[in-house]
Write the structure tokens for this entry.
Amino acid sequence: MLAIGFFILYALVLIWLGYGVNQVKYRPKTSKTTSIRFSICIPMHNEAEHLPGLLKSILDLEYPEELYEIIFINDRSTDESVSIITSFIQENLNLNIRLLHQKTAQQAPKKEALNLAINASQFSYIATTDADVLLPKSWLKGFAHEISMNKAKLVVGPVTYLPSEGFLSQFQAHDYLSLQGVSLGSFGGGSILFCSAANMAYCKDSFLALGGFKNNLHISSGDDTFVLEKFKANGLPIGYSLIYAEPVFTYPLKSWRDLFMQRVRWAAKNTHLKFGWSQLLGALVFIVNATLIILLILSGLFGISYLILFGGLWVSKLLIDISFLSATAKKIGVPFCSHKFIYSALVYPFFVVLIFLFALKGGFNWKGKYYKR
């Protein structure tokens, strides 16, 4: 049966990704003396709630202060974000910190904010992150290791959610852990498919030579994926910064609506990528989850045989997912409870299919603004 064939293919892909996860090696927490300089670019829009945690993690960075600058870009914030950064600058005159202001923005405000910062940056490597994260102490050391040892022009690393109670938070953690597994596994397998701008660094000259965000400034998201695509297409070396138990941490969203719209926003950008393995993987994930829903509906209409097939495929998928996610969680040093994942696995097929359908619809709302796909 065709359904069984898709599930076998899905299992084979996850086995390959799981193998890739195990191939990625840990990097040392300390590295040799380096002279690599970074311009840390951080766009922000109404992040007053999260900025104190980020600023503390910046102060804890274990990297020579003369080798990095910090550029905050205020994207029309209406809360206390600007005053928090202004006070931080005044209290830390030993750090090279600037605050830029983006007064207008079109379809892609985050990319436009990054363009503003990159044009004003002084150093050879751009390190990007978000304003709602906590950075590990060895964040810049990890980048520097990949650049100095492996000549990487682009370096990416893992991102995960801060531990939190409640099903919504756990569901987000499981969903994002799967994306990190794809990132790790595909890198270890020889062709990285996903990365996050919350933990990313790239050579400024290479970025500009490839056109920067040119040709995708009309797309609201993708300040990471489109950069990755350009570096891959031009054969530039890409590194993965993996220091055990030290990913970048971010905060889970507080409502199902925000989570749904965020994932629709991410999915919408994929229609603009060059057709390749990432699209095929996305299509396979959609087909497998849509098949489960269809079989569940057919079991209600036509009886027990469809219910048995649904149960067999769902359990098979659950077991392969648990194996893959367990390996990923162990590699990046975050907890994973297979019993709690079962609840997420019950919801996930409906979540994936709805996101796919909404992403095709042509637009979405994010942070109070409507964006075209």
